[in-house]
Design a protein that fits this description.
ATP_synth_F1_dsu/esu; elongated; ATP Synthase, domain 1; ATP binding; 5-stranded antiparallel sheet; 2 helices; hydrogen ion transport; CF(1); about 140 residues; single chain; alpha+beta; 5-stranded mixed sheet; ATP synthesis
Length: about 140
């Protein structure tokens, strides 16, 4: 059994509930608003806003990849908590649904550009980013 001071406990939750949990991780890598952040056991405490991107959880020779769509990460006492707007484990991603979401977002972006609707354009760009993130993670 691993020494508690040399492993991470990782939890990813959304408003809909817990999406992921691992009690013995070696490394967590996420993309924050300031850039990429890697957390290993005994890292200094941190709180950071997350970008729409992949969260990687490494343990032994394995890596779990989770599509994280915004939110924030908090780390202290070897506990990593990711509170995300939404998140999906790689094996739970419905690729067909993600492709449809990508196509829908691309259509809405074009419509918003033609109408000079900045609010709809920004929302559609975020939707496109989320769909592409999910598609990319499903291919790993």
């Amino acid at each position: 059994m691993a020494d508690n001071s040399s492993v991470l406990t990782v939890s990813i939750v959304t408003p809909d509930g817990k999406v992921y949990e691992r009690e013995s991780a070696d490394l967590v890598v996420v993309k924050t608003k300031s850039g990429q952040l890697g957390i290993m056991p005994n890292h200094v405490p941190v709180i950071a806003s997350l970008e729409v991107d992949i969260a990687k959880v490494e343990y032994g020779e394995n890596t779990d990849e989770i599509a994280v769509n915004g939110g924030f990460i908090e780390f202290s006492n070897n506990n990593v908590s990711i509170i995300a707007d939404s998140a999906e484990k790689q094996e739970d991603i419905d690729v067909e649904r993600a492709n449809k979401a990508r196509e829908r977002a691309q259509r809405r972006i074009e419509e918003a550009r033609q109408k000079h609707d900045d609010a709809t354009l920004r929302r559609s760009q975020i939707a496109l980013q989320r769909a592409i993130n999910r598609i990319n993670i499903s291919k790993h």
